[in-house]
Design goal:
Nitrilase/N-carbamoyl-D-aminoacid amidohydrolase; 6-stranded mixed beta sheet; about 290 residues; alpha/beta
């Protein structure tokens, strides 16, 4: 089983309807390139640009019943292709940073909201948003077969617990919308999450010159060792350029599954009885 993943590395059009129209066209291009799954960058509905006063923020946020979301559900069925569309979602008490995954029949497989929001105490960060409270894994029906899929969103990548929980829930592929500079160390985080959990990670970023973004959408397949190789292999299957475009890459799911049957990373020899401090809210990191 091989799946083609499309990375919609796009510049926003400047409005909700403009992003809808541009997104639809990009999905059609992805289908023409043989994609089974298409993924948008983070918060595509607003291009990851949102006001920080409460009244305006609520006006920018869209409901999952909005035509913006519904149209991508319809399009997924029309194109026979899964679509992971992202939005600033209406939610109480505050809007959320959300990805909705629609399968090729237009059915919602999950609605995941970013758990680790970028709340750094700065005026332009995500502190005005509400954080998600759960991770989800779904059996995604593609025309090539079923694959277990979950999502992280951007900053979630920096917490090893995110990918580990998704792996323990059975995820084989993580779809990761993104909006930040994908430089050496952030790419290394993705490589590490794929390696330590034996799963594939597909990340879609905004292109340059979108503010604080530089493209470099990637696919890491998580397969570090093969019997025919004397050493480890490069798990980076694909890395896009900085510029705007609809890029595609192929994931060898059969190879990944065979690897997961033979290797032990992330599963065997775990000692969860010793990991309590990780989830202890009273534990304080000693910076000294």
């Amino acid at each position: 089983m091989r799946l083609t993943i499309a990375f919609l590395q796009l510049l926003p059009a400047g409005s909700l309807m403009g992003n809808l129209e541009k997104g639809i066209e990009a999905c059609r291009q992805a289908k023409e390139k043989g994609a089974d799954i298409a993924i948008f960058p983070e918060m595509w509905s607003c291009g990851y640009a949102f006001p920080h006063d409460e009244a305006s923020l609520r006006e920018y946020a869209v409901s999952c019943d909005n035509v913006f979301v519904k149209r991508f559900s319809e399009l997924a069925e029309e194109l026979d292709m899964a679509i992971a569309v992202t939005l600033l979602e209406q939610h109480e008490p505050k809007p959320r940073n959300t990805v909705c995954l629609f399968d090729r029949h237009g059915k919602l497989q999950y609605r995941y909201s970013k758990v680790h929001i970028c709340d750094f105490g700065e005026e332009d960060d995500e502190g005005v948003l509400d954080a998600g409270d759960a991770f989800f894994v779904a059996d995604l029906d593609t025309k090539e077969g079923i694959i277990k899929v979950g999502s992280m969103i951007c900053y979630d990548r920096e917490f090893p617990e995110s990918a580990r929980i998704l792996m323990l829930k059975g995820a084989e592929l993580l779809l990761v919308p993104n909006a930040c500079p994908m430089e050496l160390n952030r790419l290394a985080q993705l490589r590490g999450r794929a390696y330590e959990n034996m799963l594939a990670i597909a990340t879609c970023n905004y292109p340059a010159p979108h503010p604080d973004c530089n493209g470099h959408s990637t696919l890491f397949d998580g397969v570090v060792y093969l019997p025919e190789l004397s050493g480890s292999r490069d798990t980076c299957v694909f890395e896009a350029e900085e510029g705007e475009g609809v890029y595609t890459a192929e994931l060898d799911v059969d190879m990944l599954r065979k690897y997961r049957l033979c290797e032990v990373w992330g599963v065997k020899n775990r000692r969860p009885e010793l990991y309590g401090e990780i989830s202890d809210k009273g534990y304080v990191y000693d910076k000294n």
